Structures are given as C-alpha cells and as structure tokens.
Amino acid sequence: MTLSQASKALGVHVTRDAGYEGGNCYYASPKGGFKNIAFMMSGRRIARIDIDSKDCATDRGAKIGDSEA
Predict the structure, then answer these.
(1) CA 51, CA 61: separation in Å to the nearest integer?
(2) Where is 29: in which H helix or E strand?
(3) Which residue, among 32, 47, 35, 33, has the nearest Cα to 2 in the 3D structure?
C-alpha cells in the first residue's frame, strides 16, 4: 500500500516524518486520530506498521499482548 492509499483508507493525511528526507527507507505517520502508529516505508510502499500502544486494536479486536488464539 502507498501513503496515498493509506490516507484514503484511514480518512486522514499520512505524511513522511521529519528527519527522513531522502533515502528509500523512512517512517510516515497519520496526521490526526491515530496516535502511536507509524508506517515504515520502503520506497513508495508500506513495509511494516509499528504500533506503540495497547489501546490500538484490529478490526476484529486483536491487541498487543493478546494470545495467538
């Protein structure tokens, strides 16, 4: 997924974080409504999503610390 696609899916603008000018690997974050979430970018595509809060859950309710089951 690209930053443009992520922005559309989340309904907020997702932009490159400060300090990551140039280069092919950088972080981007949603601006508003989604705290403690960062996207690791590889070129124009999201390679990984970092979640730094136990308050974030998937659409099915899975959170950090839940068992695999």
Answers:
(1) 14
(2) strand 25-30
(3) 47
> Which residues lie below 8 Å from residue 21, measured CB to CB, with a gap of 6+?
none
Specify the pTM.
0.77
Q: 8-41 pLDDT, tens per residue? A: 999 999 999 888 777 789 999 999 878 889 999 9
Residue 14 burial class via C-beta count within 10 angstroms: exposed 0-12, middle 13-18, buried 19 and up: buried
Q: Are 50 and 40 in contact (CB under 8 A)?
A: yes
Q: Confidence class of residue 56 from pLDDT cuts 50, 70 and 90? A: confident
Euclidean distance between CA atoms 57 and 62, whole angstroms: 5
Q: Tell me the CA distances in angstroms from 51 to 21, 23, 54, 63, one per residue in order.
A: 22, 23, 8, 10
